[in-house]
Amino acid sequence: MEQKIFHGIAILCDPDGRIETVLRNDFPEALNLQPEIPLGILIDQEDLPEYYTFLYRVKKETVLYDWKLRIDTDTEPRELFFVGGAFDARILIIASTLTSETAEFVDELGRINNEQANMLRRAMKKQNREDEEFFRDFARVNNELTNLQRELHKKNHKLTRTIRERDRFIGMAAHDLRSPLSGISGLCSLLLDGRIGDLSEDQREIIRTISESSDYMVHMVNDMLDLASIESGTLQLNIRDADLVQIIRDSFSINRQIAEQKEISLSLETGKDSIPLKIDGIKIRQVADNLISNAIKFSHSGTAIQVRVLQTGEYAEVSVRDQGQGIPAEELPKLFTPYTRIKVSSTAGEKSTGLGLAISQRIIQGHRGTLTAESEVGKGSVFRFSLPLRPSDENPAPQAPS
Predict the structure, then answer these.
(1) CB 295, CB 268: distance < 8 Å
(2) Could you say which residues of the chain have pLDDT below 50?
(3) CATH number, position 321
(4) Angle (nearest 5°) at CA 138 between 136 and 141
(5) Which terminal CB of the chain, N or C, has fewer other CB atoms within 10 Å?
(6) Residue of 52, 53, 60, 110 lying closest to 85 (CA atoms)
(7) Assigned domain for 31 exists
(8) Is residue 233 part of a domain?
(9) Which tens digit of pLDDT belongs to each residue from 148-162?
(10) 3-state SS string over the chain?
């Protein structure tokens, strides 16, 4: 009796027919079976509807079904008899080159099935050993990570406590400094006004220097107190009905005099006569003063600064655009970091605490708004903040610094 030679394939697929594991391939030169390849791309185009019906019935009924399909190989289409079974969210597909003679077909399927069952058993055992090793490694890494997290939590708690102590100390020191500094500034004003007696020009110059220095120190102390209050989460915003346009006009009027002294053109553009908001008007005025005065400090004589107040959609927006020196791209991320100075210097030796932008950002965040900066070296900068027309609540709290 002529001995028939049977060939077959066996593969594990996901429910969509994508190959996960190739268990057997008796004609690897002609049939390229690789993990991650959808088996459907190897099925003859005319038989694709039957193939998808085959997958559907296997998934639905989780039993073996036989199907004769043509499969494209590297040489020529080949007819294979398919069976499939669904288990553990995977599909085992076995195909043989046998004819449709029932007895031979069933015998060969049984032999292939036994072969593949043994192979699958061995593969699963091997997989189980690999899983055990994997889980042991995972458990070890997880324990190490847990220990690191515990140490990080301890250090973070210690750091948080240290920062609180620092902020408390800064707040106390700044508060104690403010009174005597204000006294120095007041006495200088009395001397310069001639209320205590006449002064020579040299004496007046010395007292003016003392006055300017004490005023700067008072300003710095106030900034330190503001920042300490914000960082500790105790900043209170006095939310009231206010007109944003009028706030910016007031800030513009004061700063225009300073700009004129440096021969800088300062202009104001408002899209509306009034933009009513529920905000802390004093704090928003502080932000506007900071942005406009910064633009003046870092701009040269003969340049222009444009202040704009607009309403865009659900937001009111204020922008301050200058023609100053510009800020290098690598320096931009430092702008809103407290106690950080950038390399760009003021154009007339004006002093800066380095806290104004950090405080301004926290104030705007407290109003559920945003403050951003764009700049190009040699062309200038634009600082822009936006405030929601309808805040999410009546008494917003400042966001924690990012």
Answers:
(1) no
(2) 1-5, 99-103, 105-106, 393-402
(3) 3.30.565.10
(4) 110
(5) N
(6) 60
(7) yes
(8) no
(9) 666 766 776 677 677
(10) CCCCCCCEEEEEECCCCEEEEEEEECCCCCCCCCCCCEHHHHECHHHHHHHHHHHHHHHHHCCCCCEEEEECCCCCCEEEEEEEEEECCEEEEEEECCCCCHHHHHHHHHHHHHHHHHHHHHHHHHHHHHHHHHHHHHHHHHHHHHHHHHHHHHHHHHHHHHHHHHHHHHHHHHHHHHHHHHHHHHHHHHHHCCCCCCCCHHHHHHHHHHHHHHHHHHHHHHHHHHHHHHHCCCCCCCCEEEEHHHHHHHHHHHHHHHHHHCCCEEEEEECCCCCEEEECHHHHHHHHHHHHHHHHHCCCCCCEEEEEEEEECCEEEEEEEECCCCCCHHHHHHCCCCCCCCCCCCCCCCCCCCCHHHHHHHHHHHCCCEEEEEEECCCEEEEEEEEECCCCCCCCCCCCCC
Structure tokens at 221: 């102390």
Centre a 10 Å sphere on the Cβ of residue 362 and count the other Cβ atoms it contains. 24
Domain endpoint, select from 49, 72, 100:
100
Residue with tokens 């699958």: 120
Q: What is the per-residue pLDDT across 350-377, written as a single tens digit (0 to 9) for each?
A: 777 678 888 899 899 888 999 999 999 9
